[in-house]
Design goal:
2 helices
């Protein structure tokens, strides 16, 4: 199996919507096709989870504090750094 690179991110569009970014890169076309087929279900599950979370936020309101799991640490750190940079620009 050759090296494969995966980019996966969710960014805000509005207060109640987001953009879902997902990309694969590899020099092995067959590997890309196999992963694309496998990941279709994973991406769909992520989208359904995001939609469910949004519905719950609409019903229950925003949480008092952000819930962070250990696996979210790096993405949360990156998001906070981007927020800081944007605040400094404005």
């Amino acid at each position: 199996m050759r090296a494969m690179y995966i980019f996966h991110a969710i960014t805000s569009a509005t207060k109640h919507s987001c953009y879902y970014h997902f990309a694969l890169a590899s020099t092995d076309q067959q590997q890309l096709e196999n992963m694309r087929d496998y990941l279709k279900k994973v991406v769909q599950e992520d989208m359904e989870a995001s939609e469910t979370i949004e519905k719950l936020l609409t019903i229950n309101g925003e949480p008092e504090r952000e819930v962070i799991k250990f696996s979210d640490h790096n993405s949360i750190r990156a998001r906070r750094q981007l927020q800081k940079m944007m605040a400094e620009e404005s």
